[in-house]
Amino acid sequence: IGLFLSAHPLKEVREALYAKVDCRLAKLAERKSGDWVTAGGIITQAKKIRTKSGDPMMFATLDDLEGQVEILVFAKTLAEYEPQVDDVLIVRGKVDHGDKGTVLVAQQVDLFAPTEAEVDKAREEAAKAPQAPDALRLRADARRLPASVIDDLKHLFVQHPGGSEVVLKLDTSDGPRFLLFGAGYKVDPTPGLKAELTGLLGPAAPAPPQEEQLPAPLPDDEPDVVAAAMGHPQPV
Known about the structure:
Blueprint: H1 14-20, E1 36-50, E2 56-63, E3 68-73, H2 75-80, E4 88-98, E5 101-111, H3 116-128, E6 136-141, H4 149-158, E7 161-164, E8 166-172, E9 175-180, H5 191-201, H6 209-212, E10 225-226, E11 228-229, E12 232-233
Parallel strand pairs: 3-5, 6-8, 9-10
Antiparallel strand pairs: 1-2, 1-4, 2-3, 4-5, 8-9, 11-12
Helix pairs in contact: 1-3, 4-5
């Protein structure tokens, strides 16, 4: 069902995995179509089919704790390695922003199995790295907002530039949805900005303190977090 009832399998190797990639999945939407990236994560779903020409190919979902993306694995790459559900992989491929969203077309797929020493070293290096400011977490009822609200928010964010990412939790008729705004919309969460946000979104924004204090990246226990392209927040 796409949820882990115990600890997420990636938590033990997260830092070692991130040390091997040059683009985390939540940031893929900010890359251009055709860009080469090295990404990594765990396969949560996989479906192998035959193309019209009879060649095998696979659609698979890659999850790295911060985001998810569909990867396409064509026959040549599939012959070298066939991903399985729960495999932790390093994937080298090209970004493709199609009509149905962002996908990663895999050109090379490798199983990721770091040694204990590699995991420990990556954790030590990660602990030394500068920490990003906490994300500004907002909440609003999408059913009561005008269609222009995302554009209004973007306009407001660029007037308050800073280092904090913005995460918007929208309550919808289909349940909660999370939007992560792109790097071009990081803000300085001053009291003045928060007052303007309350006027724009209503008294539900900013989010309650227990949510607002959670650090970026987004928490592992929110599996339906969606990433957003810079300037165009959208579910993936």
